[in-house]
Amino acid sequence: MSIRSHIDGLRETVPPGVTLVAVSKFHPAETVREAYDAGLRVFGESRVQELVAKKELLPGDIEWHFIGNLQRNKVKQIAPFISLIHSLDNERLMLEIEKQGAANDRVIHCLLQIHIAEEETKSGFSRDKCRQFLEEGRWKACPHVRIAGVMGMATFTDDRNQVREEFRQLKSLFDELKTGYFPDDPAFKEISMGMTGDYQVAIEEGSTMVRIGTLIFGSR
Predict the structure, then answer these.
(1) DSSP strands (E only) in 89-141
(2) 204-211 average pLDDT score
């Protein structure tokens, strides 16, 4: 099947109002172009060098999302153009994003990455650390960082009930944070959860943004 037909199939299962982020990491620019030509405009990358290289080769109206672990010394390279960083998980990273946002005279939208899986290898704030981070309030002094929601990855397991419960916990935390810290901020609206193997469960549990790679581009 072609990339276009994969995308057409996905459109039948991803409802309007849920953003489809095409995870294009490790795929060449010409493959990304096929997905672009099929109508996709939001692409997710997890390596800064690869992202910057692809951006130079592809149309300027692409909305680039950074979805991987972001090192502070790499923020400068993506700050001029990145649309959304999904992986804000500590204060020092926030301060660097603020610095580079100011240098580029732009506000950079970010999601708080929350650790909801049982696997220790996945990164992110614990729920308590996230509450503490927001309560301390230093983010309020960062006008070039806009906290736009939360992101989380479920445990890699065949147990659908466990995956559903983890997504449910993330949605519950989002609701708590929205009420407690962002009640009047329309930008705080995104719940980025769900990938190729579990995106339908994520959508059922309130996801506003799914990150899909294999179902679009095939296995790497």
Answers:
(1) 108-114
(2) 98
Query: Which amino acid, one-letter code, is at 200?
Result: Q
**By residue range, what is the domain housing residue 102?**
3-217
Q: How many residues does the chain have?
A: 220
3-state secondary structure of 118: coil
Work out the pLDDT band at 11, boundaries 50, 70, 90.
very high
Looking at the 3D structure of the chain, how many domains does it have? 1
pLDDT in tens, 64-107: 999 999 999 999 999 999 999 999 999 999 999 999 999 999 99
How buried is residue 216: exposed, middle or buried, by Cβ count under 10 Å (0-12/13-18/19+)?
buried
pTM for the model = 0.96
Q: Are 127 and 114 in contact (CB under 8 A)?
A: yes
Query: 60 Cβ partners below 8 Å, 6+ apart?
Result: none
